[in-house]
Every structure is written in structure tokens, then in C-alpha cells.
Amino acid sequence: EVQLQASGGGLVQAGGSLRLSCNASRFSFAEYSFGWFRQAPGKEREWISCIGADDTTYYTDFVKDRFTVSSDGARNTVYLQMNSLKPEDTAVYYCAADSLKAFGAATLTTTPNRPRYWGQGTQVTVSS
To answer: What does the pLDDT look like over 45-97, one tens digit per residue?
Structure first.
């Protein structure tokens, strides 16, 4: 059974960095795309980034130049390096996977039940 497990969240001061990890157990990295979403209290879940099966990366505008998504197939792990963190980055962060070539912000609203696989969230709190 495939499984996603996110980790690496925590409390950090504004301007600091965190690296989130998503262990993608039993996934074929050549056949799946992986991504990150986040949800702040009282807000909708929002897409942050995706790395396709071909290693093409995609980002939402508000994290470009601050966040970097990467994957290590040998370790079955997807990473989200977050730099220059801001208080507004505070949220629960989720990793997701799908057999789609890639997925983005529109996937949640236009494609039912996609992305297909989700991990549990990891809390990121950025203090000012």
C-alpha cells in the first residue's frame, strides 16, 4: 500500500528556514508527481508546489524564490526547502501525490478526488 508521511515542521522565527520531508513509501517516482499544499486556520487549502515525474518543478507565485521542491527517488522522499519564512507562511503543510503529469492550484477545484494520495499534515509556525 502506498503511503505519504510528512515531517519537519516546527516553530521558526521570521526570516528563518525549515525543510519539510515527505516519505513516499512504495511510490514509483518515475510514474508519479508529488506536491505540497498548505492550510491556515480558517482558510482554504492552497497549492504551493509540485515536482513532476520528469522532475519539472512548479510553484505558486507567493513562494517563488523562497521555496524549493526536490525529490530523491533512492530515498523515496520529497522535500520542500523553505527559506525567508514569513508569519503568513504559518499553516499545516501537506504532501500529495498523483499519477497526473503534474498538479496545481486548479486541480483541487476542477478534478474530483485529485490529487489522489495525501499525507498527514505537519505544522509550520513562523513567529514575528
So the answer is: 999 999 999 999 999 999 989 999 999 999 999 999 999 999 999 999 999 99
* CA nearest neighbour of 97 among 33, 31, 26, 29: 33
**Paired residues of 12 in beta bridges:** 126
Indicate the Cα dihedral angle 70, 73, 75, 80, nearest 10°: 10
Q: How far is CA 90 from CA 74, 80, 86, in A?
A: 30, 15, 8
8 Å CB contact between 6 and 121: yes
pLDDT of residue 109: 82
